[in-house]
Design a protein that fits this description.
Layout: H1 3-16, H2 19-29, H3 34-41, H4 45-70
């Protein structure tokens, strides 16, 4: 996939996952630390790792599904 298509599929996948998971991923991949994410989302810093892991897995599942549909 080219960069434009990859970006489009990533945005679609983000829209398909729960909003809190999408927000977690956006904040993390914008460069925020776990501590900053926890503060921004009013969560415990120790919960960020597990929440991000679940969000990344859900995103990957949706992204793979979308990319198979595009082929």
């Amino acid at each position: 996939l080219d960069a434009k298509e990859t970006h489009h599929l990533a945005r679609l996948a983000l829209r398909q996952i729960p909003p809190r998971q999408a927000q977690l991923l956006i904040l993390r991949y914008s460069g925020l630390s776990y501590k900053a994410i926890a503060e921004a989302m009013d969560l415990s810093p120790t919960s960020i790792g597990p929440l991000l892991l679940r969000a990344e897995r859900e995103f990957a599942k949706r992204y793979r599904s979308l990319s198979r549909e595009e082929v």
